[in-house]
């Protein structure tokens, strides 16, 4: 469950514009969805391998070049589908749990 | 001073302490081990390395050029443990589930989705992991040929629970219970249902379903009946146990009537235990037996009035009190057994008048029991062990008698008193704290079959062993009740002690010899030497008087047994 939600959130963050992993991490950390940074990298790689994400290298003023991620068309489609499912689920949960 | 190495991380050169380098390398290879090549392992590692390089370069400045242990520690903390790194991405590891994850524990359920009658066969087949068809064939075969299979099937039907929900169905098939698998089973159910709705499958399974529903009803009734019977028997057993325990406690605590006349406590309190010990013992026994009693009573009430389970504090308190009771009783057992630790024997020669004739008549003074006395008895045929006690005295029938050959020419009586005690001195004292009575009139010697503990003294396992020494050629007559005292007396005919009474015995070299056992000799009870034997020799006549053996013969040899 958490896993799917985490992916959903990551895709959501990326959909707002090109980001590099540290940005994603800080946002997820603020939302307390992620505890340690390391978890993010395998996830990103998998999403990329599934064709949902693409990246391009950008030079950094300090340190090594950074990977900036963005959504592919498939990724956007998938995110929409996820959004829809999420809303349905949220509605269902609200309906069943509220008295 | 530490040695540094130069490394290339993510395309940037760093100077790093050797220890820190090793640590980092371990960390990375550890993460690496969690992924396979197909997961994109190399890329993941590369990304992580890049991130590490980024973090390092934030720490490095012109004044601080070397990456230290502490830096590596901090980076590792921020990235997380290798297992955490891999753990968040379960989907990648799910392919290797069998490798990484222990198989979920299988449970035995009846399968409601794949059933002919009750789903027993398919349930067992799931559990054992093969096709239910074979089990069904085997069952059909066993029903046809042996009949027993049917009974077995019904028993299993009752015993094995039905898999009611998704998680039970998963446990039945041995699948791990998580969201994915539950989703799977629900989807299966849904497709099954839609197929039925669309008419691909019958909406309700005909025949089998009706049959199984009918049998299911019968079984649920049977289960109810069996439960009722089990509860009923449980109640009966509880009540019997209750009565037994109650009786035992009453007997031990001194309320007479439960075990006949036995009243152990008064004897124990007056003659074995000190008042403190008695108090501890009674409290301990009350806890030890009383608490199970109360619990049984409580259970029965609970069952009768449908009270909920007893609150935990009650059970805890009961448990603790029971253990305290146990400890108290054990403590008393140990401290009492200490009082019986040492053993001593005192030997005394008893005054004895020599009988006028050659025969000593032995009799028995039996223990007297008055109505106010307490009587504790273990009665065997002749091995009676009795304690007759009142508040002041206790008489114990722990006396035995041996008859051996005397060295000299006189009868002798030796009394050996054995006692136990907490120490040697205590045991010696114990031998003096009892009273043993004998009485003699002329040639008649009466021996008590009991001894008495003196008032205010304690019973310390005393016993009295008497040795009567009979000179060779002289005799003893053993009175009728003397078998209560006799203990393994050596005699020429190997007669049992019990059979030795009411007979005359003469001491010979090989032990006692029966002189009244001749079949021709007509035994006369309590025949004394005073019995006058008149022998008038009047030419031909011989007359033995009083008890009247008369014989008329010319030449008669008369033999009168001694």
Can you tell me about this structure?
The complex is a heterodimer of chains A (99) and B (562). By secondary structure, chain A is α+β, with helices and mostly antiparallel strands. Chain A is 60% helix and 12% strand. Chain A is built from four helices and two strands, in the order H-H-H-E-E-H. A two-stranded antiparallel sheet of chain A has the order 1-2. In chain A, helix 1 crosses helix 4. Chain A is globular. Chain B has 562 residues and is of the alpha+beta class. In chain B, 43% of the residues lie in helices and 18% in strands. In chain B, strand 7 and strand 8 form a beta hairpin. About 7% of the residues of chain B have low confidence. The interface between A and B is medium-sized, with 27 and 32 residues.
Q: Indicate the proportion of strand residues of chain A.
A: 5-15%
Widest β-sheet, arrangement of strands of chain B? 12-13-5-16-17-18
Main structural class of chain B: alpha+beta
Low-confidence parts of chain B lasting 5 or more residues at pLDDT below 50? 89-102, 256-262, 520-532, 545-552
Which class do the helix and strand fractions of chain A yield?
alpha+beta
Compute the average pLDDT of chain A: 83
Query: Low-confidence segments of chain A, ≥5 residues, pLDDT <50?
Result: none
In this structure, how is the largest beta sheet of chain B organized?
6 strands, mixed
Helical content of chain A, roughly? 55-70%
Large-scale geometry of chain A: globular
Main β-sheet, spatial strand arrangement of chain A? 1-2
The count of β-strands of chain B is 20
Helix percent of chain B reads 40-55%
Principal-axis shape of chain B equals elongated
How many helices of chain A? The count is: 4
Please outline the major beta sheet of chain A: 2 strands, antiparallel
How large is the share of residues in beta strands of chain B? Answer: 15-25%
Oligomer: heterodimer
Mean pLDDT of chain B equals 75
* Order of secondary-structure elements of chain A: HHHEEH
| Total DSSP helices of chain B | 16
């Amino acid at each position: 469950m958490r896993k799917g939600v985490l992916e959903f959130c990551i895709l959501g963050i990326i959909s707002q514009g090109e980001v590099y992993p540290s940005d994603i991490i800080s946002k997820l950390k603020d939302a307390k969805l992620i505890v340690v940074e390391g978890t993010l990298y395998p996830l990103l790689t998998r999403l990329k391998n599934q064709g949902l994400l693409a990246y391009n290298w950008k030079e950094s003023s300090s340190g090594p070049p950074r990977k900036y991620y963005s959504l592919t068309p498939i990724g956007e489609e998938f995110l929409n589908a996820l959004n829809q499912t999420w809303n349905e689920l949220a509605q269902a949960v609200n309906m069943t749990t509220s008295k | 001073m530490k040695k540094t190495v130069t490394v290339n991380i993510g395309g940037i050169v760093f100077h790093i302490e050797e220890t820190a380098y090793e640590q980092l390398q371990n960390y990375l290879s550890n993460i690496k081990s969690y992924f396979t090549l197909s997961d994109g392992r190399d890329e993941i590692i590369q990304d992580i390395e890049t991130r590490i390089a980024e973090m390092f370069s934030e720490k490095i400045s012109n004044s601080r050029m070397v990456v230290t242990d502490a830096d590596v520690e901090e980076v590792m903390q921020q990235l997380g443990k290798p297992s955490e790194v891999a753990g968040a991405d379960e989907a990648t590891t799910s392919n290797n589930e069998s490798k990484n994850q222990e198989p979920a524990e299988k449970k035995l359920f009846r399968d409601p989705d794949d059933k002919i009658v009750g789903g027993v066969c398919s349930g067992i087949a799931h559990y054992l992991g093969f096709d239910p068809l074979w089990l069904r064939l085997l069952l059909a075969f066993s029903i046809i040929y042996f009949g027993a299979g049917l009974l077995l099937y019904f028993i299993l039907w009752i015993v094995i629970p039905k898999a009611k929900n998704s998680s039970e169905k998963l446990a039945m098939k041995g699948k791990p219970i998580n969201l994915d698998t539950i989703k799977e089973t629900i989807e299966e159910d849904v497709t099954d249902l839609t197929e039925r709705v669309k008419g691909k499958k019958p909406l309700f399974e005909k025949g089998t379903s009706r049959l199984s529903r009918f049998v299911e009803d019968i079984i649920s009734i049977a289960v109810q009946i069996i439960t009722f019977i089990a509860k009923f028997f449980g109640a009966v057993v509880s009540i019997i146990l209750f009565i037994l325990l109650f009786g035992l406690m009453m007997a031990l605590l001194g309320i007479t009537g439960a075990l006949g006349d036995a009243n152990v406590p008064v004897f124990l309190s007056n003659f074995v235990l000190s008042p403190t010990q008695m108090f501890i013992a009674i409290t301990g026994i009350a806890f030890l037996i009383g608490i199970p009693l109360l619990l049984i009573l409580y259970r029965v009430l609970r069952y009768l009035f449908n009270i909920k389970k007893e609150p935990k504090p009650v059970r805890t308190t009961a448990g603790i009190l029971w253990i305290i009771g146990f400890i108290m009783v054990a403590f008393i057992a140990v401290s009492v057994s200490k009082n019986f630790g040492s053993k001593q024997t005192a030997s005394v020669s008893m005054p004895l008048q020599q009988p006028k004739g050659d025969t000593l008549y032995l009799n028995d003074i039996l223990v007297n029991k008055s109505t106010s006395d307490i009587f504790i008895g273990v009665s065997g045929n002749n091995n009676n062990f009795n304690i007759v006690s009142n508040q002041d005295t206790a008489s114990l029938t722990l006396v035995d008698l041996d008859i051996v050959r005397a060295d000299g020419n006189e009868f002798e009586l030796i009394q050996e008193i054995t006692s136990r005690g907490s120490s040697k001195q205590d045991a010696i004292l114990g031998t003096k704290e009892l009273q043993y009575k004998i009485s003699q009139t002329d040639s008649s010697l009466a021996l008590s079959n009991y001894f008495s503990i003196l008032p205010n003294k304690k019973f310390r396992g005393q016993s009295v062993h008497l040795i009567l020494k009979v000179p060779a050629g002289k005799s003893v007559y053993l009175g009728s009740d003397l078998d209560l005292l006799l203990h393994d007396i050596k005699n020429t005919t190997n007669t049992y002690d019990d059979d030795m009474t009411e007979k005359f015995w003469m001491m010979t070299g090989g032990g006692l010899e029966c002189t009244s056992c001749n079949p021709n000799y007509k035994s006369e009870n309590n025949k004394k030497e005073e019995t006058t034997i008149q022998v008038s020799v009047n030419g031909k006549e011989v007359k033995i008087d009083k008890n009247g053996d008369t014989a008329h013969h010319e030449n008669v040899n008369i033999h009168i047994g001694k």
